[in-house]
């Protein structure tokens, strides 16, 4: 029975890090460890398989067009000529509009929730914001089609009257277009920014804030001079994380962006996004070349989100280990 | 002079803090506006026959979304059967065996990558993996796509809740001579059970609303599905197709479908929160 006692020599915390003692490990333990390691390996395999499938599926496109695929703007499935620039442009611009709106709104909300609101209010409002993150994107798209697009169409003439000297605010008020897509994306990423920024702001040490209060600073001055600088990298992480979401968001954008592959400076004009073109065209792809071009767009989307999310994680990790 | 400067600072303080309150009110207000508007537009079209009938032929008014509700249940259910065990077991690996190991680092990294990949790209992967080889859109391919989205969510959540289980509980069981696998399965896992199940439920609610990965996997169907290897209707996809259609009657049905979907997602989220509260209190 002495073997039964042997594995207990070290504490679980230590054993987690130490090499598992080979001969002493019981058969059952070994089998269990191998099974759970196998399932963990499945995840590695899944991510690798995804990268490989996307690369393999888009090979034909890269062979035919090379990197030119990314900066030409002809999208002609009939003649098998493909350039993804209009989609890249639509994705990037709509995501930037979303950030422009959602970052101030989200960080402002977070400041209110973390620094000002009494706990009950803060919890209730935080829950409402969390629920907003749970609203399926197709429902936001539905709201977009029937509520946001008419609203944008109504507002655009005023925008062009007052801000028409800028090239972004010129042209016919279609309603559908980059502006509508950016707005709906803003609603989608707002909860992420608000929730993460709130959590980050809650980690600011009290002693730092109290030190400034003791010097006679107002609450806003404490927020500006202590809390925000302290939380800067975490908030930046939240921004990157939500940028990753915005770049890949599909349904809501597809429903309001207008689905027209052209590049124009005006935010009023219909455009197209990478995710939207995949959603619209893949099921009815005209042929292998078309399919390959769509998968190539998927690969670009995959690569970009991996990089953006990696940056976000880096920024947020750094915060967790001050 | 000093008093004036002080008054100015106080005014700025009030202004900026007021602005942050407005931001918070706007953010929470968006949710209320969405809920209210969907309830208002959807409630009038929601009826028993809407929930239990098949869609009518194109152009004919009326009909329901029964096939989409059943289809969503099937596709999401199978996704859960695939995704939840993988996520939980891999989570057990990370929490119980993974500390400081290089392999665990890469698994975590891969889970992060999968978590960040847009759902449309996951759909593309399922398309290349299942739809192309079988040469047909199918319920199974949709489930596989959704399960890939679930795995990283379940995994993260499982790992987090397992880490909350105090080491003393593990040590007590080990000291009694219980083999380690039994300690994990019979002591640690039940202790964290409520949190893990809640997480799995939230993951199910999340993928129940996913549309993008289903567009070219489950594909949709206006009739009852013909088994797992054929196209199947799902709630979010039906909603999408109705919303972008030119028919007034389909728009009406889209709102009703949105209400059904929204109620489900809300119910799960609120239930999960209420259920989890007491557990978090007793875990420490």
Number of domains of chain B: 2
H and E order of chain A: HHHEEHHHHHHHHH
What is the global morphology of chain B?
globular
* Cα-to-Cα separation, first versus last residue of chain A: 47 Å
Order of helices and strands of chain B: HHHHHHHHHHH
Strand count, sense and barrel status of the largest sheet of chain A are: 2 strands, antiparallel
Model regions low in confidence, pLDDT < 50 over at least 5 residues of chain B? 279-284
CATH fold topology of chain A: MetI-like fold
What's the CATH first level of the largest domain in chain B?
Answer: Mainly Alpha
What would CATH call the class of chain A? Answer: Mainly Alpha
CATH architecture of the largest domain in chain B: Orthogonal Bundle
> Main sheet of chain A: which strands, in order across?
1-2
CATH homologous superfamily classification of the largest domain in chain B: MetI-like
Give the N-terminus to C-terminus distance of chain B in angstroms: 54 Å
Find the count of extended strands of chain B (DSSP E, 2+ residues): 0
Continuous helix count of chain A: 12
Fraction of helical residues of chain B: over 70%
How many β-strands of chain A, per DSSP? 2
SS-derived structural category of chain A: mainly alpha
Residue stretches of chain A low in confidence (pLDDT < 50, at least 5 long) are 1-18
